[in-house]
Amino acid sequence: MRHVPLSRRELVQRLGAGFGALALQGLLAEGARADTTDPLAPRAPHFAPRAKRVIFLFMHGGPSQVDTFDYKPLLQRDHDKPLPFAKPRVQFAQTGNLYGSPWKWAQHGETGKWVSELFPHVATKVDELCFVHSLHGTNEAHGGALLALHTGSATFVRPSMGSWVLYGLGSENQNLPGFVTICPTLGHGGVNNWSSAFLPGIYQGTPIGNAAVPASKAVIEHLTRADLQGDVQRAELDLLADLNREHQERQGADDRLESRIASFELAFRMQMEAPGVLDLANESEETKKLYGLDDPVTENFGRQCLMARRLAESGVRFVQCTHSYKWDQHEKLKELHEKNSREVDLPIAGLLTDLKARGLLEDTLVLWAGEFGRTPTAQGAGEGVGRDHNPHGFTVWMAGGGTKAGLSHGATDDYGFYASVDKVHVHDFHATLLALLGLDHEKLTYRYAGRDFRLTDVAGHVVRELFA
């Protein structure tokens, strides 16, 4: 009897490995946790979660930790002296002597947390924040550092942490995307920062505008189609789905085609709900003022934060707001960090106030981070002095979502250059984020190209000291 070798496509087809089987293979191996008929259906976490959703406030460019939340008295004392220890072997650019922070610092809240005058509104919230002062990565450049923070890898295209969260937990609202990024950057990795990479396409982030578009003009592209009524659109989609599935039956399982079909269906459902969620007109004037929508300085980022609250409140699992690309102060540190902080300080405090008042902060994890920090040594001189990139020790903070309020975890050295106490790698940060959502980072895997991948690659440990 003559044996005809099967092609890879025929083999997959005969094995019946369709979208649900491939996309949820890792999850289903742990038990019946998912509805395989709907890749976005809510799924049970691995263990009891502290948080249900995430709002990520991304400060693109790299805010200076030693000018915002990581007070270093010795840096102030030793201004313009040489750094008393070696600088990193690999540096993005050359820097000179120590440069003391040009801002005043004060202690705030019952915790007595030191915050610079750059963040007067966030300073009123320090007793609700969980600071990590010892985050560190390995990449000196924006592109690699952005990808590492968003995907866990600085060198390969990997799924975004938002995609991993959506893959692991599904969406709470089937009429909205489960992962939304508002005004995302198109540089330094661009779409790869919210891509699902080798995860099925249905888990990728849905952008609302981009960094080149004011938040007031940011929309989900092609959300409405005025020339067709709903019943005609429904018939059109049904016909298209039938044709696609006939094609699939002939050609075999195709994740990309399944994801496209699912995205068409989601887009159809979004037409009814998304416009109302994105329309801020019904918010009270008091709420708009809370977010700074009455001030042209704070209006843009305030609008992003208010949209994020509305999306989170409506069941979107992961929302990112990006303040882009403004924090990269190689020069004019004082002028530009002051401008940047004025744009985001009040909206961030307003978001925290609003989430808490609505009972959402308890199970919503708010993250504030840049891709890295800045050097405590000066770049340039005179009034135009700045700071260089520094991935070796920087500050991020979290609020809500089961984190320990009022905590300051870890530390950098006396001048703020290197993480030195209770160091937290980016992989540890990701493992901790997933754990707060009830996901075991070692079990949340996806088999691709013969290997089980995860957000934390082959590293990462959960920093349980951050848990309430």
Structural write-up:
The longest helix has 25 residues, at 333-357. Helices cover 32% and strands 16% of the residues. With 468 residues, the chain is of the alpha/beta class. β13 (411-412) and β14 form a beta hairpin. It is built from 13 helices and 17 strands. The chain has a single domain, classed as Alkaline Phosphatase, subunit A (3-Layer(aba) Sandwich).
CATH topology: Alkaline Phosphatase, subunit A
Under the CATH scheme, the architecture is 3-Layer(aba) Sandwich
Through-space gap between termini: 67 Å
* Model regions low in confidence, pLDDT < 50 over at least 5 residues: 6-35
**Biggest β-sheet: count, sense, barrel?**
9 strands, mixed
Radius of gyration: 23 Å
**What is the element string, with H for helices and E for strands?**
HHHEHEEHEHHEEHHHHEHEEEEEEEEHEE
Strand fraction equals 15-25%
Tally of individual helices:
13
Helical residue percent band = 25-40%
In the CATH scheme, the class would be Alpha Beta
> What average pLDDT do the residues reach?
90
What descriptive keywords fit this protein?
468 residues; alpha/beta; Alkaline Phosphatase, subunit A; nine-stranded mixed beta sheet; two-stranded antiparallel sheet; 17 strands; 32% helix; globular
Short description:
The protein is built from 13 helices and 17 strands.
List strands and helices in order, with pairings.
Layout: H1 8-15, H2 19-23, H3 25-28, E1 53-59, H4 73-77, E2 105-108, E3 113-116, H5 120-123, E4 129-136, H6 142-151, H7 161-169, E5 179-182, E6 206-208, H8 230-251, H9 255-278, H10 285-290, H11 299-313, E7 318-323, H12 333-357, E8 364-369, E9 373-379, E10 386-390, E11 394-399, E12 407-409, E13 411-412, E14 419-421, E15 424-425, H13 426-436, E16 446-448, E17 451-453
Parallel strand pairs: 1-7, 1-8, 4-12, 4-15, 5-6, 5-7
Antiparallel strand pairs: 2-3, 4-11, 8-11, 9-10, 13-14, 16-17
